[in-house]
Amino acid sequence: MKFYPLLILFLIINFGGLYIGNLLMNNGPTSSWYLSQNIAPWTPPGWIFGVAWTTIMVCFSIYLAYLFDWQNSRFLWSLYAFQVALNVSWNYIFFNQHLTLFALIVIILLLIVILYYFLTFRADTLQLKRFLLLPYIVWLCIAISLNLYVVVHN
Description:
By secondary structure, the protein is an all-alpha fold. The chain is 74% helix and 0% strand. The chain is built from six helices and no strands.
């Protein structure tokens, strides 16, 4: 496949995943359950989440388009499907089902997958492009700290 068709495909899937995750949140951070939780003092204001996830998914989609244009394999598609499933399911597990410890495990697994991309695919063609994953890695570290705070303090 070529870069631009892949980019469009990944943008559609990644933003579609965000949309589905949002639908599964059960009002998410505005729900009575979440508002009754002890949340981390460093929890960003709500609008930051939209900006962060938009930036993350644009950068991630660009990275994936380069990666899959360079090496297109069944393993990569399986890894990507696993990543999408983890990303979408976290919203449902945390906000809808209130399984905060299980959600913590899911988001740690998601970080491991993104770190796997970052550390494994370092060919010359991807050497600098892998830094497009840094917003995702940083945000997942923040999200893990927020999720962990809820687990420990509630």
